[in-house]
Design a protein that fits this description.
With 204 residues, the chain is of the alpha/beta class. It has helices spanning 13-24, 39-44, 46-71, 81-94, 100-114, 130-140, 150-165, 186-201; strands at residues 2-7, 27-29, 75-78, 122-127, 171-176. It starts with a strand and ends with a helix.
């Protein structure tokens, strides 16, 4: 089984992936942040490095999905291949940080790759307002994220909501992070676990 966690920057995807993998004994697959050779450069010069970064993520996530399906294990994945294609890449294009030529090249490659993979069995979307996202980003203190602008997060949020409103390729669970603290409150984590169990086993 393939469970995926989706959400904007600072929504708590990595934290929840770790907590759920521990609780359910699922194998975690994390987003490639620490070893990503383009991320720091991207935040310093988005226009120059946007295409390179998106191609790197596309390749990395495609490999992840192939590995997940081949493994035969229950895997929980931190961020999906769809988020880059429907949120991050088109947002960069709209902000004139990725050329139309590069964007069309990227989308053509994504369309081809996505035809070879299956969607997650359950998609968990972490929905949060911009103040919640900013608070979480500041808490973790990654140096390269200090340059992230409020309007950038707002644009991403709008795209996430548009994508989720039309998502119909599998089961979907939406968790509002503004009103829950699964990282620090065991009872809130328990609520999330109960809702995931209900979706997986059809208890609703």
């Amino acid at each position: 089984m393939h469970i995926a966690i989706a959400g904007n920057i600072g929504s708590g995807k990595t934290t929840l992936t770790g907590l759920l993998s521990k609780h359910f004994a699922w194998e975690p697959h994390y987003e490639d942040v620490d070893t990503n050779p383009y991320l720091h450069s991207f935040y310093e010069d988005m226009q120059r490095w946007s295409f390179n970064l998106q191609i790197y993520f596309l390749n990395s996530r495609f490999r992840q999905v192939i590995d997940i399906r081949r493994s035969g294990k229950t895997v929980i994945q931190d961020r999906t291949i769809y988020e880059d294609a429907f949120i991050f890449a088109p947002n960069l294009h709209d902000m004139n940080l990725m050329s139309t030529r590069d964007f069309e090249n990227y989308r053509s490659l994504f369309d081809l790759m996505s035809s070879f993979i299956q969607p997650p069995d359950l998609l968990v979307y972490l929905r949060g307002t911009v103040p919640s996202l900013v608070r979480n980003i500041q808490k973790r203190g990654r140096a390269y994220e200090e340059a992230i602008r409020i309007d950038y997060l707002k644009r991403l949020n709008e795209r996430y909501e548009a994508w989720i409103s039309t998502y119909n390729t599998g089961k979907l669970l939406v968790i509002d992070i503004d009103n829950i603290d699964f990282a620090n409150k065991p009872e809130d984590l328990g609520t999330v676990i109960d809702r995931i169990n209900a979706n997986i086993h059809g208890l609703f």
